[in-house]
Amino acid sequence: MNEPKWYYFNGNNETIGPFSKAVLVELSQAGQINNETLVFKEGTEAWQPFGAAFTQPPEPEDLPPEPEPLPPEPSPSPVAASAPTYTTARQNRDAKKDGSGYFNNLVIIFVIGLVLLLIQRPIEQEMKKKVAKIDEEQLEVQAKRDRENEELRKEKNREMMRRYIRAFPEGR
């Protein structure tokens, strides 16, 4: 089989070749040509980019011959083929009768609920402690404000008494 020859067009307006397909691929790997370099294959009508020429499926003459088909496998005996199917169907039927699938689902749900409950309790206790601490802090702040307000009220009363005494000195 005579391999077609390839040519490429360089940047100096020159056609370079002929090359085999393998040599053209080597030139690409060496960096002398790239996917945009125009190439031409003997027997075709047009130039095309290297990348397009080598990403298309190979032409029939480039393909290796098809392998011979394998001989058909012997068919299994009817008895051997039906035995596993019967056993599997029987196991499925028995599993549905005893309700083990339902029981397994209940156990899984119970375990998940138990885990969630065990996780929730410490979180709930921690939240209660934080709320109690915040309440305690708010009570302390309110008590401080009440003391300050009481002091201000007493001071205002003293100031009013002083003014009264100054305004009416003989009324003592």
Structure summary:
With 172 residues, this protein is of the alpha+beta class.
General description of the model:
The protein is α+β, with helices and mostly antiparallel strands and 172 residues long. It has a domain of 57 residues: Dna Ligase, domain 1, CATH 3.30.1490. The chain is 60% helix and 9% strand. It is built from four helices and four strands. It has a four-stranded antiparallel beta sheet with strand order 2-1-3-4. A hairpin with a 6-residue loop joins strand 3 and strand 4. It is elongated, with a radius of gyration of 48 Å. The termini are far apart. About 5% of the residues have low confidence.
Number of helices: 4
Which term fits the overall shape?
A: elongated
**What is the CATH level 1 assignment of the domain at 6-62?**
Alpha Beta
Question: What's the helix-strand series?
Answer: EEHEEHHH
Q: Count the E strands.
A: 4
